[in-house]
Amino acid sequence: MNVIVEAGANYVGVIGAGEGATGEQMVQARRVGELLARKGVRVVTGGLGGVMRAACEGAVGAGGVTLGLLPGSDRADGNQFLTVSVPTGLGEMRNALVVRSSEAIIAVGGSWGTLSEIALAVRTGVPVIALGGWPLPGVEVLVAQSPEEAVEAAVRTLAR
Amino acid sequence: MNVIVEAGANYVGVIGAGEGATGEQMVQARRVGELLARKGVRVVTGGLGGVMRAACEGAVGAGGVTLGLLPGSDRADGNQFLTVSVPTGLGEMRNALVVRSSEAIIAVGGSWGTLSEIALAVRTGVPVIALGGWPLPGVEVLVAQSPEEAVEAAVRTLAR
Amino acid sequence: MNVIVEAGANYVGVIGAGEGATGEQMVQARRVGELLARKGVRVVTGGLGGVMRAACEGAVGAGGVTLGLLPGSDRADGNQFLTVSVPTGLGEMRNALVVRSSEAIIAVGGSWGTLSEIALAVRTGVPVIALGGWPLPGVEVLVAQSPEEAVEAAVRTLAR
Amino acid sequence: MNVIVEAGANYVGVIGAGEGATGEQMVQARRVGELLARKGVRVVTGGLGGVMRAACEGAVGAGGVTLGLLPGSDRADGNQFLTVSVPTGLGEMRNALVVRSSEAIIAVGGSWGTLSEIALAVRTGVPVIALGGWPLPGVEVLVAQSPEEAVEAAVRTLAR
Lengths: 160, 160, 160, 160
Prior knowledge:
Chains A, B, C, D: This is TIGR00725 family protein. Chains A, B, C, D: InterPro entries: CHP00725, LDcluster4, LOG_family_nucleotidases. Chains A, B, C, D: Pfam families: LDcluster4 (PF18306). The structure is a homotetramer. By secondary structure, chain A is an alpha/beta fold. Chain A has a single domain, classed as Rossmann fold (3-Layer(aba) Sandwich). Chain A has helices spanning 23-38, 50-61, 94-100, 112-123, 147-157; strands at 11-16, 42-45, 66-70, 84-87, 104-108, 128-131, 142-144. In chain A, helix 2 links the parallel strand 2 and strand 3 (66-70). Chains in contact: A-B, A-C, A-D, B-C, B-D, C-D. Chains C and D meet through helix 3 and helix 4 of C and helix 3 and helix 4 of D.
């Protein structure tokens, strides 16, 4: 029996800055990844550095499975904590694939790239939990105060 | 000689709500489309109703050329003011194509869908002019008070 | 009244080699574009050189409308006979957009790139007319002996 | 240490009919998946049934990792032997993602869908090994007589 194929596994996206992430955001992202993995949830990211890398590191360290949807067409651009990577070659358009592949999104910190994904998620009905980040122009995003709270909120939204 | 092929023509995107656009937004969008067309600028939209339709109507009424990048795969979903339509079948992912096809973006009003495109534009270096809409969490978007001001600002950003 | 917006206009794709097209293929493509334009049909291509350019030149010369779906993200790569261009940034993936945007496909000559589009068209139910080209491993492609015959066959397939 | 994240892992695509695959093709695909997994190569497929499912079953049974790039936007459409799935929502356009994600492609049997991917692979420089299938109009595809020979040929093409 192969334990890494779990029928009906859930996928949660973790988004945030690839460059310029703060130390606090990195710590939070790592913890979010770890907590998701412990719940058996796969972690979806854009596959690069910063928050994406930290979330994958946390997940893999806890025995989890990670999916990296890279913007470029070279798999070598992905961080080293990806179970599986997809070199989409879609550029920023791959953000929409991150959203499509996720049943809920946890946004760690904020940036214009993150905002694009948050807006797309809200627009397409994918629940968004914001951990840190900007004051957002609406109330459709759940705000969490800690990685624990963010993961709890995300897991509550999953259809099981 | 065919006047509708202009080497080096410029393309400006007009984005905004497809449903739920206010009367004022419709009037503004129509005027924006008209003014862009008068300057020989092609109008790019998501090809559907509301602000998209109004901008195209204004452009076509002034002899302009419009491009509609539809989310679905049925061309019949497009509004009747499209010179050329592309049934992308990409869903919301086509928002990224709207941004890629535009040298500048004018956002009329605001919604989560619009915010997604604004954020993507800022992220990829496409100038954004906001006409109405939400207070945005940053200063990277130019705010215009009228269609005239918005079109002036957009045209100033074009490389000629 | 603006003549370039025609509700219910039909779109036919013309595909073929961008580089290495023979002189005969260029002549045929130009004639195909011209004949399509005369019938009021818009011409869809990948927007680059060779057969794509020749088809657009023929269409525009006859007062037609052309759509170029470019693989790269730089509009300047398009040929000078495009009414509207879309710098998709999708690479070869844009071939699928060419097929989606076309109600029928005329393939002038053949190459691996062309074969990919032909196969995708057949797979998704878009009629394909082959003018010249390889012996194909199936009977699902109509073979035409001349541009006139190819355009006649394409037009017959259009839902009017 | 987590064994499922292997830096520099190789990915080989296995393509073929989702419906209408013959019993022989299913047996071959399962064996191809198994052999790839034994060599530590990840298996990329379109994630659905038929040849795709058989290749994944073979890989997972041998402890391998599989990636399914689904055409629709519902993860539940994927077969039960996917380590990770991506509900791309791209329709047939996802074939290009399968090719991009693969360093080599093994085609089991043939169909128009398969031909589209083969042609795209040849076009973009991804080696193709054909196991069974149509006589193809060119010599750029390696023809293998058995799953063993196909996997050997695919592995030889991988940059290590």
